[in-house]
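Researcher: Sequence recovery benchmark, item below. Answer with residues only.
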C-alpha cells in the first residue's frame, strides 16, 4: 500500500504545496484554540528581535532618562527591603553569627549521628560473625 505523499505520480511541487497547506491549517487551528499562546509567542519573538537589533542613538537618548529612573527606583527598593529584612531578623534574634553557629551545630550533630550509625552497623556485623 502506497501513501499519497510518497507516490511517484505526485510532483515535488505538489508535495510542497500540500505540506504548506497542511502546516498553514494546523497553525490556524492552533491559533484559534490558544490565542493567548499565540500572543505570548509573538511577544517573545518581538523581544528576541528587539534584543538582536542594535540600539540607535535616538533610542538611547529617549530611553536613558527612564532607564536611569528605573535603576534608581530598583536600587532604592532593594535597599529598603534589605534594611527592613535585616531589622526584622534582628528583632527575632537572628543574625549571621547565630545562623553560622546553628549550621555548625547541625553539621556536628549530623556527623556524630553518621559516626554512631556506622559504629552500630560495624558492631552488629561483628556480633553475627
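Model:
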Amino acid at each position: 500500500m502506497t501513501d499519497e505523499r510518497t507516490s511517484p505520480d505526485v510532483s515535488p511541487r505538489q508535495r510542497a504545496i500540500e505540506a504548506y497547506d497542511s502546516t498553514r491549517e494546523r497553525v490556524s487551528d492552533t491559533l484559534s484554540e490558544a490565542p493567548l499562546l499565540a500572543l505570548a509567542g509573538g511577544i517573545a519573538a518581538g523581544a528576541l528581535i528587539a534584543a538582536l537589533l542594535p540600539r540607535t542613538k535616538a533610542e538611547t537618548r529617549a530611553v536613558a532618562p527612564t532607564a536611569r529612573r528605573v535603576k534608581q527606583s530598583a536600587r532604592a527598593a532593594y535597599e529598603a527591603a534589605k534594611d527592613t529584612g535585616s531589622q526584622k531578623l534582628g528583632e527575632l534574634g537572628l543574625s549571621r553569627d547565630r545562623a553560622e553557629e546553628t549550621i555548625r551545630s547541625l553539621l556536628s550533630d549530623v556527623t556524630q549521628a553518621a559516626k554512631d550509625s556506622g559504629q552500630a552497623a560495624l558492631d552488629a556485623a561483628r556480633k553475627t560473625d
